[in-house]
Write a structure and sequence with these properties.
Shape of chain B: elongated
Shape of chain A: flat
Radius of gyration of chain B: 30 Å
Order of helices and strands of chain A: HHEHEE
Oligomer: heterodimer
Distance between the termini of chain A: 38 Å
Strand content of chain A: 5-15%
Strand content of chain B: 15-25%
Number of domains of chain B: 3
Largest interface: A-B, 37 and 54 residues
Structural class of chain A: mainly alpha
Helix content of chain A: 25-40%
Largest sheet of chain A: 2 strands, antiparallel
Number of strands of chain A: 3
Chain lengths: 95, 476
């Protein structure tokens, strides 16, 4: 499996990572290397092995449905670039 | 050309837990912006999710209620996209191993027949926050109170074939989640939302047409209108020789049309992968059994019971069990009056009409179930006539008096005293000599007129059957 430049740009765009045209070639070859590693893993016969959903093999612990967090809005909004009437303000999202 | 619509619905209900799906932050509707958004909900580095056991339980309850397979091994996945009201940059959902698998519900069609609609799956996921675009000129306001609220997304099979069926399906789902008490399911508040997939095909054809998805419809009525408007649009395009583009659309209720959403708004490539911060959820048989035992009587079973226990028609039983509130109200009325049929008539008739007119829900009904039950027993023990009962009912709407107080204070007690009725009858005979002659000549229908006159004289309080009997006796 290989990855070409347009796929690198597409994935970068989806992940909101800026990659300059100088960097594309290197990223492309690195991702391709990872994909080769995956190809190698996929050549292993795993027919008799049950798929794993998590490397640790445990199961999820549950939390009782109780409110443990207080309202810390004032404190938390101190680190936001801009707030008004309790709302976080972000650059306009065009509908 | 006869066209057939193929409709599938994706319904989101917000689960009415006290806290959020993965954090201990309160999860209530209508709080001040961002007062229910703490470090985890804001996706602060280092915070980790822990699953709310109540949300899981509610999903399992729903699964059991629709006869679905419960996923004994469910896995959470990340659905990745960027939007300011999604702080983590991904939504935690369940892709390949949902908690609720295939099930079905049955709906009643307009002609009274039943139709089974398959449910593909129902999965647990977290809600996003809310973006407010109109309140600021160059910015959008973000409220993260809803972010991380638990949702159950219920996906139907494409087995719905009309807008009316879609509404019946939605109403049934609404009723089930209300019976289970797992969600408020108030469409106007967004605690029940609906995305509709619509395609059309020539009747009799098996192949599905290209579908469009209409996002976020927030009322039963708009679901019906949106589907009708979208199927018309698709028909016009195909009949003009065009083809349908697979896309997401929105419904504009003021213009009654659907419009295309810009493709930029829809990132179709969500790059799902298993959520590494959560382990698989294991559910065992004994857990499922214990929840099964907690299940309340569900709408279909209650409807059957109403038909046998109270001897009601299919239609009346359907109306009375359409919501748990109505069913409970009805059963209290029956308990107080011991007449299931009269109770059904009053609840489905006068009561629901009154609530509809005053735009009230049953919980805020000005006439309590106990009072209506008492009112009906006063008809049965002949204290008042059915006609006077309506007057008492109307009085109850605007007063705090009891049924007996209203009857007493307004002097509405039915006159059953023979002497008093005889006086009335004699007066009617004196005042209507022509009709008396006609009746003697065998014109039976005049009797009704004369009874009416006597009732009028008594201001509705005389017992009409006594009046009628006495009139016949005196005239013959």
């Amino acid at each position: 499996m290989a990855f070409d430049k347009s796929e690198v740009s597409k994935v970068a765009q989806l992940a909101r990572i800026k990659i300059t045209s100088d960097e594309i070639e290197e990223v492309e070859s690195r991702i391709t290397e990872i994909l080769h590693l995956i190809d190698q893993m996929q050549s292993v016969d795993t027919d008799s092995i049950e798929p794993m959903s998590h490397p640790f093999g445990g199961t999820q612990i549950l939390r009782s449905d109780t409110i443990t967090e207080e309202n810390n809005r004032d404190e938390l909004q101190k680190i936001a670039p801009k707030v008004e009437n309790g709302l976080f303000l972000v650059p306009k999202v065009i509908e | 050309m006869v066209w057939e619509s193929v409709i599938g619905l994706e319904v989101h209900v917000s689960l009415s837990t006290a806290s959020k799906l993965f954090s201990g932050t309160a999860s209530n509707f209508g709080a001040d912006p961002n007062t229910q958004a703490n470090v985890f909900d804001l996706a602060m580095p280092g915070t980790l999710p822990v699953l709310n056991e109540e949300a899981l339980k509610m999903a399992v309850k729903f699964g059991l209620a629709i006869g679905a397979q419960i996923g004994k091994h469910s896995v959470f996945d990340r659905k990745n996209y960027f939007y300011p009201d999604l702080p983590k940059g991904y939504q935690v959902t369940q892709l390949d191993f949902p908690t609720v698998g295939k099930g079905s519900i049955s709906i009643t069609l307009e002609d009274g027949s039943e139709k089974v609609i398959g449910i593909t799956r129902a999965h647990i996921e977290e809600n996003a926050g809310k973006s407010l675009h109109d309140e600021f000129s160059n910015e959008s306001g973000i409220d993260l109170n809803r972010a991380g609220e638990p949702l159950l997304e219920i996906v139907s099979e494409p087995e719905i074939t009309s807008a009316k069926e879609a509404v019946a399906y939605l109403k049934k789902l609404h009723s089930i989640v209300r019976y289970l008490d797992i969600s408020d399911a108030i469409m106007a508040q967004g605690s029940m939302r609906c995305d509709v997939n619509v395609s059309i095909r020539k009747q009799g054809e098996n192949k599905l047409g290209t579908r469009t998805e209409i996002k976020n419809i927030n009322s039963f009525r708009f679901v019906e209108k949106a589907i009708n408007s979208e199927t018309e649009r698709q028909q016009e395009i195909i009949e003009d020789g065009g083809s349908i583009t697979q896309e997401t659309r929105r419904y504009d209720s003021t213009k009654d049309i659907t419009t295309s959403m810009r493709s930029k708004e829809i990132a179709n490539d969500y790059r799902y992968f298993p959520e590494p911060d959560l382990l698989p959820v294991k559910i065992d048989e004994s857990y499922i059994k214990s929840i099964e035992q907690e299940l309340p009587e569900l709408p279909d079973i209650k409807k059957d019971r109403f038909m046998t226990e109270y001897q009601l028609s299919t239609y009346d039983s359907g109306v009375l069990t359409s919501s748990l509130e109505i069913a409970d109200y009805y059963e209290i009325v029956v308990k107080h009056c011991q007449d299931s049929k009269l109770a059904a008539n009053w609840v489905t008739g006068n009561l629901l009409a009154m609530l509809n007119q005053l735009e009230l829900d049953l919980a805020s009904s000005p006439v309590r179930a106990e009072d209506l039950g008492c009112l009906i027993s006063r008809i049965k023990d002949k204290t008042i006539s059915g006609k006077i009962a309506k007057t008492v009912f109307d009085t109850l709407i605007n007063s705090n008096l009891s049924v007996d107080e209203v009857i007493e204070q307004k002097g509405l007690k039915q006159v059953t005293d023979t002497a008093a009725i005889e006086e009335l009858v004699m007066q009617v005979i004196d005042e209507n000599p022509d009709q008396v002659i006609q009746l003697r000549e065998g014109k039976e229908q005049v009797l009704g007129y004369l009874v009416g006159q006597a009732m009028k004289l008594s201001q509705g309080k005389a017992n009409p059957s006594q009046v009628s009997q006495l009139l016949k006796l005196k005239i013959q």
